[in-house]
Amino acid sequence: MPSQDTTRKKYISWLSLIETDYITMFIKTWFTFLASLQELVLDSNDTRERRGDRDILEKYKEQLFNEILVKIDEDFVRNVLNAYLKAKNETLNSSPFLRDYFEIFYTYNDNYYQEFLYVYRGKTTKLSLKAHLNSRERHLKIILTDDRRKFRDYFGADSIETGFSLSEKVKNSRIFEEKGKFIEEVLSTVRKKIEHIINSNKRLSERGKQRRINFLNDECLRDIERKLYEELDIKNIFPRRPHNAIDDINQSTLEIPNKPQYFDEELTKWFLDFAYKLRNILFHFIIDPMDEDWQSLFEYSYLALKHLTEENIRILQERGVRK
After folding, report:
1. Residues 161-213: pLDDT tens digits?
2. Strands laid side by side in the 123-134 sheet
3. Hey, where are the domains in the chain?
């Protein structure tokens, strides 16, 4: 059993490691952070059985704000939000990693399904939206159904199915945040699918093709579009991340006027997933270490991770004193 003096010196040496180029500091702090997690959440059996950063991180998240009472201050919150905004709007926006970050920037309602109906003279036009996982990609399935004979005659079926990969759209992030942009994307996807069906019919004259396109726009989608604007709530599909934080702050000043009680916990756990993604980029890909955007992103991320590491060490020191 190490003496209290030996333990204290170990924790002081850990702290000294994280005080020294921000990418390097983030890496050093990540390993120091993991070392603190090992002592906070793992017993001797866990140490033998568990492998990898992810397992330890998940166990830490389970105990965070229950057994492990870290203190969250406004500097931590600002650093996390700055890292979020920097990554989403600048650093990752032009990088090949952006698709991998879709689920970090946006939560995703796996159970989302909604129908939008328009009934006229006993005939129904229906657009259904369903979120689903397809080949490990998050997709939105779109089905347009119409029970009019004219629809079937024009397009060869009672329903047309299409959709798009959500992660591929992450560069156009406004579609996940603005209802109008999302509705435009949905209707554009439907139009492209049906126009492809129309143009593939070699027997149709240009006049016949235009007649079908007019029917689609004027008699099918126009009323469905109105229903979408009336009934769709974008946050039922994509709650913004980090959770509700973005709605509660002034993005120019990062002031938080009315901080909800759950804000600290949700934001902190979001940041842990975000930091783990940054760790993966550093360990598995090549980035330009002198790039100003990357340095700025890692500065904010380092400062936030440093705060959590210091809090973990404080808790470990207090446990040592109680023993």
Report:
1. 999 988 777 767 778 878 999 999 999 999 999 999 999 999 999 999 999 99
2. 113-120, 123-134, 137-146, 159-165
3. 4-106+242-322, 113-236
